[in-house]
Amino acid sequence: MRTTLLALGTAAILAAPAFAQTGDIVETATGAGSFTTLLAAAEAADLVETLKGEGPFTVFAPTDAAFAALPEGTVEDLLKPENKERLTEILTYHVVPGEVMSSDLSEGMTAETVQGGELTITLEGGPKVNGTAISQPDVDASNGVIHVIDGVLMPGA
């Protein structure tokens, strides 16, 4: 387990130049270039200002590819004004209050989300949140940390 976390830390350091790490969570995600769907969803749900706020926040951030893997029409449907409440529920399920770094993760640990649900961390075979791979941990932002994930987490799933 310690080897896995050390490898993750090294990978994060080597991958770090891909992110503008001096900005807040929104600026950092924007600078990465692979979170346009997440950022559009945050805007549609009126969460941008919150994610630019003081924090700290831990965001498990799905990439554009993660959103693209959802069933056809899902994202478009969620972005409709009449689905704002459901979109907000999904997005806030990806956010944990406080700053949780990969070195803080342990097998089977749980974390309560801003949405009120619970996320479960597993480490066997690489770090995962609710079974979804954390492909790039510990992307620092001025108001928290981003962990890049390979899927979209759905509350109650």
Describe this entry's structure for a reader.
With 157 residues, this protein is an alpha+beta fold. The chain contains seven helices and seven strands; from the N terminus they run ααααβαααββββββ. It has a seven-stranded mixed β-sheet with strand order 2-1-7-6-5-4-3. α3 (36-44) crosses α7 (84-92). The two termini are 27 Å apart. The model is unreliable at 1-20 (pLDDT under 50).
Labels describing this entry:
seven-stranded mixed sheet; single chain; 157 residues
Strand proportion: 15-25%
User: What is the SS-derived class?
Assistant: alpha+beta
Order of helices and strands: HHHHEHHHEEEEEE
Number of helices: 7
Low-confidence residue ranges: 1-20
Provide the gyration radius in Å: 15 Å
Provide the residue-averaged pLDDT: 88
What is the strand tally?
7
Give the strand order of the largest sheet, numbering strands 1, 2, ... along the chain.
Answer: 2-1-7-6-5-4-3
Mind summarizing the main beta sheet?
A: 7 strands, mixed
Q: Give the % helix.
A: 25-40%
The span between the termini is 27 Å
Detail the topology: elements first, then pairings.
Layout: H1 2-15, H2 25-32, H3 36-44, H4 48-51, E1 57-62, H5 64-68, H6 74-78, H7 84-92, E2 95-97, E3 110-112, E4 118-122, E5 128-129, E6 132-141, E7 144-149
Parallel strand pairs: 1-7
Antiparallel strand pairs: 1-2, 3-4, 4-5, 5-6, 6-7
Helix pairs in contact: 3-7
